[in-house]
Known about the structure:
Order of helices and strands: EEHEHEEHHEHHHHEEEHHHHHHHHHHH
CATH architecture of the largest domain: 3-Layer(aba) Sandwich
Radius of gyration: 22 Å
CATH class of the largest domain: Alpha Beta
Number of domains: 2
Shape: globular
Number of strands: 9
Largest sheet: 5 strands, mixed
Helix content: 40-55%
Distance between the termini: 42 Å
CATH topology of the largest domain: Rossmann fold
Amino acid sequence: MIISHKYKFIFLKTTKTAGTSVEISLSRFCGDDDIITPIDFADEAIRQLFGKQPQNYLDFDPQGNTYKKYFNHITAQEVRNIIKPSIWNNYYKFCFERNPFDRAISFYYFDYPQNRSIKFDEWLKNNYYTNSFINNNWNIYTINDKVVVDFIGKYENLRSDLTFVCQKLNIPFDGYLPKAKGFFRNENRPYYEFLNTEQMQIIRECNSNIIDLLNYGNENQKNHKISILDKEKEQPGNYTEEYYNQIEYLLQQQGKSEEAMIAHVQAIGINPKKYWVYYHTLGGIFAENNLYKEAVKAYHQAIKIKPYFSLTHYYLAVILEKQGKLDEASTSYQNAIALGLTII
Length: 344
């Protein structure tokens, strides 16, 4: 979530509504005093490439220990309890919601990205139905069952609704949304073909408030020629990886190196797993959090894509040495030196 004092808004982050993509994009415009909460390390690597990271979300308890005062999916009630009334009353509050039928399928694939030993029907009845955090976002943007945000955008209209908000707040949003958490779901069928009648009834029962509020009814979706997921995958022509790569090239030709670098980072955000610098950055984040096994894996992937960047070999060597893998560390140090790195 984000609280921006610079632009006077509170972004409440709901689940499975592309909130991380929105958060990364909005983070680019945040000031030093704004509150930005942490996200998944894999997505944090994208945000870090833009020079942004979590900030001002920690506080101290009476014993002097740090704790997360603000966190990823904090509710409106929790935010209102800890910020000044003047901020709550005067800042523009918004969030995003998603068709509950499609969202349920998305959550299942997020829970079981690879090993789906638990079938969807079993998950829906035993995990989804009994867990209000999973089955809807209602409590994030309501207090005592009353909607307290100024605007609820729709996932299905994500870019246009976010543009509306940013225009209202004078944020120079350029339409850019990275592909965060976009590697879990490979099911392309429209949800009304995926779900049976009983499953639809379970989802409808858990989300009747949202369906009524935002007019999400299955009957309104059956005429769609393609699924919502397909719409998500179809990037408009001026927001694709290719587009940003072309912009980077043109800016380089004009000698605008800083602007070209920004365009390059935007391209990475659309398809991060293609770029060595993404894995290099991710390895650093893992290392900072003492996740050495994950850091080694990320650095190896960076080297696989770009074998000749000496610093990746060096950082890999440092982590291997911390793991006690001295022979492997020595090899990586030698590779870094052979590629021109001077180690003092």
